[in-house]
Amino acid sequence: MLKVLGVSLGVIVAFAALGYFMILGVGKPIGSDLSIVGKGRPALVMAYENFSPDGGEALNRLRAIRSDYDAQLDFVIADLGTPQGREFASRHEIGDSQAVFLLPNGEPLQRTVIAHDEQELRQRLDAKLAAVK
After folding, report:
1. Residue 18 pLDDT more than 90?
2. Between the CA of residue 31 and those of 8, 117, 121, 123, what are the distances in Å?
3. What CATH number should be reported for the domain holding residue 37?
């Protein structure tokens, strides 16, 4: 019984660590503090479901381009595993791997999916940022 409990606990810890590192990625993590939205900078908030292949891939695409946009745009994760993340996603009608681009005052500009192509993702972000200026 104790051995089974130890193995189960080990599996749970391993899955939690995997989810944590999927959100953190390499370099500066994409945070899940939704309180920064509407504080004077545009934001791209992506809904993320832990252990979702689609969400993980979308998150990786965001991390790939993020450093080029950090000076202009806040990247935030609405973690669907938390009450705050679920409430935000529900309010903005987004699901796993979908995102909402928000104006500096927090008003939504557009809901979208994270583009599969890095160039298309960059073009979409550039267009949204140009609309904010």
Report:
1. no
2. 29, 23, 20, 23
3. 3.40.30.10
